[in-house]
Amino acid sequence: MKYVKQFLIIIGISLAGEILKYILPLPIPASIYGMAILFIALLTGIIKLKDVRETGKFLIEIMPLMFIPAGVGLMSSWGVLKPLLVPVSVITVVSLVVVMAAGGLVSQAVIRITRKKNGDNYDE
């Protein structure tokens, strides 16, 4: 019953995200709203981590299984996607490099700010 309760909590938050998607006129997916709600609820203590931990771990463990239908869909649409292979590959590589660079720069900035806040003045 513990897993059912935890799953219902996660589903309820997902439903709240879906409702927000239809109420707010922003181009944000419902899943992002749901994750933000869950994050805020966990930070504020409205939901305790122990109330969703096991089911969350289970959902993360089976996540690769969820990509199988998408992969099959790509394989069955190969005729349509073949002419777009080069542009999509270039866009993917460029965006990957940009995201990695931005993530690295943000991480370095956060580390510097944290060190200054803690009084550490050394760079490694």
TrEMBL record:
The keyword Transcription regulation does not apply. Keywords: Cell membrane, Membrane, Transmembrane, Transmembrane helix. Pfam families: LrgA. It is a multi-pass membrane protein. The chain crosses the membrane at residues 7-24, 30-47, 59-78, 84-107. The keyword Cell membrane applies. InterPro entries: LrgA/CidA (IPR005538). It is found in: Cell membrane. This is CidA/LrgA family protein.
